Known about the structure:
Layout: H1 9-18, H2 29-40, E1 47-53, H3 59-65, E2 68-75, H4 78-87, E3 94-98, E4 112-116, H5 124-139, E5 144-150, H6 161-170, E6 175-181, E7 185-191
Parallel strand pairs: 1-2, 1-4, 2-3, 4-5
Antiparallel strand pairs: 5-7, 6-7
Amino acid sequence: MTRNRSLGAEYFDRLYSACPDPWNFETSTYETDKYRATVEALGSRHFGNALEIGCSIGVLTSLLADRCTRLLSIDVNRYALRTAKLRCNKKAGVTFARMLVPNDFPPGNFDLIVLSEVGYYWSKADLLRSIGKIAVAVQQKKGAVELVHYLPKVHDYPLSGDEVHDAFLADGRFRRLRSDRTENYRLDVLTV
């Protein structure tokens, strides 16, 4: 692991080849509680056009879909996307695309971008590039950005959860609307 290089598609290909749900999203009480807190932190607002970066197998996607008219969920792993599509096949307005942010980024403006458990896979340079693209994508609609990241240090990851959140907050375009911290994760809702 190097802090100067993002974890790429091959890293996630290895994980999903070894286990179809490498983080136990479907069965973990921790994940269930965190997903509930993630959706609740958005308040009662309904979002017209949302983006989820790093949807994995679509467990959070399914919950977000109920709060959005249109939701584009992206991931770098083909297996994860196939599973997410099956999970959400009855959810209206949900589309999926294979993309690797920040190299790929969908065009358009969003009133919500969710970055859950993804930012620490990026190098610092890729995180800063991603922050710039996210800021532009929510700026026109004065949208919200929701960040949720695991806090304990993971040896494989280039960054920590706190480093991801702190980098967003250091960018003068963002201001914090809400912040929650548990022993294991940090959740921030930001706006531009």
